[in-house]
User: Fold these one by one.
Assistant:
Number 1:
Amino acid sequence: MVDRGIGSGGALPWFFQRLTGILLAPILIVHLLTMHKWTAHGLPWDQVALRLTNPYWKVLEVFFLTFALYHGLNGLYAIIGDYVRKPALRLTIFSLACVAGVVLLIFGLVTVFSLTPASLRATL
């Protein structure tokens, strides 16, 4: 393997993959403990929605969504780069994955930001 140095384009994705992995671990634990309670039945939706009206939880969930999306897509990019040899097919597969990831991120952000105390009073 040829050492291409830090300017080869691989150092930053490698670093951010590790960084998001480290940051995702505690955020995931906090998310599971507060939004799911690690019980057999979890929390009812109204309690989760009520919790998401707090700006602190909104920020935490947005970080969770974006870090998970970056971490997953970066890992998928590495896997696709290792196993798909045709550049056009590699670009197509990764582009479809990015579009799917952005759509899921938008759904997650809309869910997090649409929950307000006023909207909950109207539905509960």
Note: The two ends are 61 Å apart (CA to CA).
Number 2:
Amino acid sequence: MIRARQTHRAAVILAVAAATAALASPARADDGSVVIGGGAEDRDRSVVGAAVAATAREAGWALSRDAVAAQDVDRLLDCSDPVRPWACVPASLGSRGIRRIFVFAVDRKQTASGAPMVVLTAKLILQAPQALAVRQRFCEHCADDRLTRASTEVARQLLQDLAVRSGRTVLEVGSTPAGARITLDGQPIGATDATFNTFPGSHVVVVDKAGYRPETRAVVAEEGKTAAVAVALVPADRAGAPARGSRRLPVALIGGGVLAAIAGGVLLELGSRGGAGDKYRYAGATPAGALFGVAGTAALVTGIYLWWHAPAASAPSAGIAGGGVVAGWATAF
């Protein structure tokens, strides 16, 4: 049974190749290969092979159409030397100009609960400089669409892993003040000010420090270049402080108090005119004037107190002195 399984594993491979060229330029030599092995069904391996080949082409690979011999597939599947990984690559591939290889083992297993599961064990091997990246993905209840998505994600992650290791794409993050936490694409990576290796493409950087408002920046990193992100953090209390509206109430009280005091003075004047039979005398104006005067004075004092204790940075343009009080109260509404 074991020998039969080994024979099946060695025999079941997929070497996906497609060399594409721009119409205006000559065809490129094959420089990459995709090898699919493992004990899963033919359909699973075909789905994985198509997804990985598409990802390789997106990365600029010129894939070889030549099949890989069964014994060479076994050798690639077993390759795990992190120091000299290209020593695992058969000479027949190297002689054809292949310098980078995706190797995927696709196996069917079951979870502890008995659910079907596809296990992807993936490798990316580079010739110059020699490098090896390895990842594994478990896909439960894995229909073709989910298997395609999982294979594509793993292949892209392997490319990103080696791009980060190459050190050719750099991200520099600084903040004022320094010592803020850096989150890159949802993963914490350190604190400012710092420089990190990354992979080419779009990234989202979040800079966060206790007592300050978090800042988010989108940045595009290019191979061979340093992408810089500089953030000036804003204190949380200042960021959340009310702006102009914080002095609307005192302005309204001051303006209303001035108007009420004026109205009270007018009523008191009307109430004090002439004698008892004077037709210009308004007997009820005196108590009303007194009431308006007291209310206006109270509103004026309260408004001045609130104005004095309001945040200085949020002061409106209208002043308190002179006629600016009434103007400020009017424009606030």
Note: The longest helix spans residues 285-309.
Number 3:
Amino acid sequence: MLAEPASPERERIASLYRELGPAVYRRCLRLLKDREAARDATQEVFVKLLRDIDRLAQRETALPWIYRVATNHCLNLLRDARRHGADSAEDSLEVVADAPPSFPERRLAREVLSRFDLQTQAIAVGVLVDGMEHEEVAGALGISRKTVHRKLSRFLERARDLIGGGKP
């Protein structure tokens, strides 16, 4: 039996998974603190993304939305684990639950991030938000450490200019 040709939508999803899957995995790993659970969660997050694929069409909101879906999914897993008596999940949940729900800096960060391609966004979030090392981000995204450094440097330079904090 011949395989069906891949639709443009399927190709786009596969491309997004290759590009952003490692960043989603890293987010899940950070919250769940378990590699196998993070792998499972990453796949489940992408299944959820497929249900609302149209939201991925707007590049400026795609990455923040993907991170929000991943975070919410992991928080739900942690809550379920806590309800079923898993002690370690409770500590992780409390740290995240204390974060402020919304603030102007978050909107500014989203606006700045939206000016960059998805790979640069993933690099910036990985290094600046998730605290990953350049080598770690490079491995997760399948690029060189030098590329991470170069893209992050350009991101920081342009971001400073965008928010008016560039060097005089």
Note: Helices lie at 8-32, 35-51, 59-83, 87-97, 104-113, 118-129, 134-141, 145-162.
Number 4:
Amino acid sequence: MKKTPLHERHLSLGARMIDFGGWLMPVRYTNVIDEHHATRTHAGLFDICHMGEIAVTGPQAFALLQRAVSRNLEKQAIGQMKLCVLTNEQGGVIDDLTVYKLEDDHYMLVTNAACTEKDLRWLQTMKESEGFSGVEIVDRTEELGKLDIQGPQAQAILQSLADTDLAPLKYYHCLNTTVAGIPSLVSRSGYTGEDGFEVYAGGDKISGIWDRLLAAGAGAGLKPVGLGARDTLRLEAGMMLYGHEMSESVTPFEVIYGWVVDLEKDFIGRDALIRQKKTGVSRKMVGFEMVDRGIAREGYKVLKYGSEIGDVTSGTLAPTLNKAVGLAFVPAIYTEPGTEIDILIRERPARAKVVKLPFYKRTDKHIFYNVFI
């Protein structure tokens, strides 16, 4: 398994380590509930060095990306990030990734950890097969490190170490600065439903930023957070996880990514998605809350009138809400909020109801639910 530059830091903090997409990652330092609440009420610090970074540069960089992703990048400004979907010929999701425009003809793609290699192969094959000779595609995952700091105190803690005023930085935008004296790219977004930032720096320097952030945030309630709480936080915020809600057999219209599909432009998978748009989807991902006691887990069956109609893709007890919630695929006729369904838990049907996503949403005037960016 691969190890991030922070591996020894995790061990010294007593983290429990697990295999995640071929990476040895911390699942928790204390416990999931404690780390979850720390992020919601103060701040959490996450090692995200396992995620991929792919540089796409050159005079045809925009043209290649415009052909590769379903979202229209034409009006993307320098310093702006766009949540995008890389689609195959059938319209299936190869990956959901973030496209940073760093300069004209210079983009950085941030990929899911388990998808980096296949994303790279897909883009390189596109370059060769479709004649994009004026573009260079480079995997920078090994040379870069990435940290996420999320929560109400995130800005104040990071600001104490950053040389640039972070207050004007808009959501889904980035800037170059120094953090703890180390040249860094800082962006504002997140995977928790809270305000927060990503910090990118050299892989050989990222541990210094980690140490300084933990020290700077000690008095403000900052805690290191593992993958366990990262999962409960993202699920409360109604955010999807590749390999659970998304795969190459799932299209953007079947989940909550229809808004990142622009059928007016040409991209791989467009024809298939036009057909699906016309006929309508037969299934759709929904959020649900348990009515009866019990926690729905990935793979549990969804029932209606005693018959199986779908599967749970993610489920947990939401610590902030103190209720059991989940995501599932069901037939399109059962997606209306308030629709009653059953979840088969240990061979017994337990009542649940479809609800509008997200389950949890902040109300800060400058923070918006990230899938609408």
Note: The chain has eight helices and 20 strands.
